[in-house]
Amino acid sequence: MTTQHAGVESEIEAILSGLGHRAMVGDLYGPEGAPYYEALADIDTSEVREVIGAIAGRPGDVLELAAGTGRLTIPLLATGRSVTALDLSADMLQRLALRLGALSAAVRARCEIVHRDMTAFDLGRTFGVIVLGGDSITLAGRADRRSLFGCVRRHLEPGGTFLVTAPATRMGNESAGAHHQIMTRSRSVLDVYEYRTASEERRTVVVIPKDRSGPEVPILTSSPFVVNAGMIRSEAAREGLDLLSSTAVRLTPAGRGQILLTMAAAP
Amino acid sequence: MSEEKRRLMLWGVGHESGRAERRVKDGVTVALLEDGAHLPDLVARGVLAAGSTAFVPDGTPPVTGPTVIHHHGSAATGGEELSLGTDFYLQCQGYGVSQYMSVIGPTLVRLESSDDLEVFLSDADTARTTGQFPMFLTNPLVHLADTPALGGSVSTAGPRHRVHVRADAAISTSPTGAVLGRVGDCLGDLEGAWERHNAASTHPCAVALGAVIQEETRVTAIDQRPWIGHYLNALSTLRECHARGITGARVSGFGGRLSTGIPDQHADAAWTVAWTDDFALLRDPGSNRSFQMSRTMGELVDLLLAVGSVEAAAEQRPESLLRELEAQLALRGIVLGEPVDNRS
Fold it and tell me: Which of B307, B111, B314 is CA-nearest to residue B214?
């Protein structure tokens, strides 16, 4: 369920005030946030179809940036590809490793986990396909995105493809916010709040369990940058990555528009 | 479902319940061509005739004889989409990735590799032992491709019912199938090749997955799972349940039986018994007809299906009760083990 309304920030402040010392503020991508991130990712099948479809017919091993807990990694492995899953968060990669443990030895053998920063890495090899999904490009600021595109270009095989998803538009009404309620697979409910003010180059995402009866209530935050697919396309082009195609992602969470950009290194 | 969509699903699945005898007089029932340039030759050789349906790429010139339907895209490989006009889209996806995908419309799930087969078998084994079926495969919009090669009925599996014509002119019954011939061959040539492939196999159809899965691997998998045909029927039953808004149904023989106290034998693959807390559902996949009944009646039916006869069942239930059940089923036109008359 999603509601759009002004005053999301005030609502969060009221929640924090009501919780008092029970509020435990943490990073959504850190150790305290990883289980909740995984719960959200577990039910999110958006972009999987489009990414799987985009890599069909494009040969080579896959490098997945910001792999997280494996929302795209596992389906990519299911296509029979070898996948290098890279992420900055050791907690996320630990959870990915647990998920891989439930798969067959043959599938596990095709996955390499790499603990690196997606904006500055050197793996000493190239890949046929590099994937950056989940709108994770929004986790990097302008300078870091420039560095990321450089890393991507250096790690692409000749003829290789870079797939990146990004929001279709900047977050709508700058003074409003959004509140989604999401039921996880374990049937717990998470409140997800997002807001941004016009002057900020980032938006704020806050995840709070609906059940706040415990002695400690996690308040998990992240601050992705406000970018859209058009900006990513332009920035990538300046770093030598040319657009091949642009595809609207169907069935995005909370109806948010998302675009899958397919790019290749400029000659 | 419109006739053209039925035929497209026959092309994809390789089976169409209740229509085994309703094939066209001459030519194949349905063909899908990757290249429309092959259409005239297929007509000239009698592979396509009046009554046949040919799905051809947009822009293919019409011919006299078969019904020609233009399609855009493809459903030959996972990740593709085939459309008929602007109001019907068929997604195609590989089996291994399907559990990670949301269902957005009619979907054909293909086994495209031995990895896909491994996942399919793992799901089947899980269903057999726990009663938990793969969720995506019980969605009414999702259809498993090439079921004749997976232990399903072969009554509509051969080239007289469906063919796939590749761009390089090779012909099979499926995009993943062993080649039966080429454009220029007549239907009799294709049928002969299909029969020869299957004569050499202990578990036909040996053609539909012949290009992507080793025959020995496929046959071993079916040998180890004599109930696999019943699993496919159970999936159909659960899809129908979901289409009717019935959730939480269990299928007897998978993770337990509706009737208690009998050996865990696999039931007659021609019928399935599903049940909820409130009622039972007897389904004949051959005719696609279902019969709702009380749990009590369903338990007796399940017993009869498991042991095979009233005489054998009478060792556990009063024979008079079983005879009365037989009479009630007969009133509905049901003779357990025989296909329900599909004239309607």
Answer: B111
Determine contact, residues A191/A181, Cβ cutoff 8 Å. yes
User: How far does the CA of residue B10 sit from the closest CA of chain A (Å)?
Assistant: 24
CA distance linking residue A265 with residue A150, whole number of Å: 10
Long-range (24+ apart) CB contacts under 8 A made by B219-227 are: B221/B117, B221/B121, B222/B150, B222/B151, B225/B121, B225/B124, B225/B125, B225/B128, B225/B151, B226/B266, B227/B128, B227/B253, B227/B266, B227/B269
Angle at B290 between CA B288 and CA B293, to 5 degrees: 170
Chain centre distance of CA A111: 19
Query: Is the four-CA dihedral B129, B130, B136, B140 of positive or negative sign?
Result: positive
Closest CA to B163 of B215, B208, B195: B208
Residue among A131, A127, A130, A132 at smallest CA distance from A157: A127
Q: Which residue, A223, A221, A216, A267, is CA-closest to A242?
A: A267
ipTM over 0.90: no
User: Rounded to an integer, what distance in angstroms lies between the CA atom of residue A109 and that of residue B31?
Assistant: 40
- Mean pLDDT along residues A187-216: 89
Q: What is the pLDDT of residues B201-222, one digit of tens each?
A: 999 999 999 999 999 999 999 9
Q: Does B64 touch chain A (CB under 8 A)?
A: no
Handedness of CA B333, B339, B343, B344 (dihedral sign): positive
A199 pLDDT above the threshold of 80: no
CB atoms within 10 A of CB B304: 25
Largest CA distance in chain B: 67
Q: Is B2 exposed, middle or buried (0-12, 13-18, 19+ CB in 10 A)?
A: exposed
- pLDDT given for residue A3 in this prediction: 62
What is the distance between the alpha carbons of residues B317 and A152, in angstroms, rounded to a whole number? 71
Tokens 């940058």 identify what position?
A225
A64-76 pLDDT tens trace: 999 999 999 999 9
Contact between B97 and A78 using a beta-carbon 8 Å cutoff? yes
Residues of chain B contacting A78 with CB distance shorter than 8 Å: 94, 96-97, 100, 115, 119
Cα dihedral sign, B154-B159-B165-B171: positive
Residues B288 and B341: beta-carbon distance below 8 Å? no
CB B11 within 8 A of CB B281: no
Which residues on adjacent β-strands are paired with residue B57? B71
pLDDT in tens, B284-317: 877 788 899 999 999 999 988 888 888 888 888 8
Bridging pattern class, strands B53-57 and B67-73: parallel
Q: Is A75–B119 a contact, with Cβ atoms under 8 angstroms apart?
A: no
State whether residue A80 is helix, strand or coil.
Answer: coil
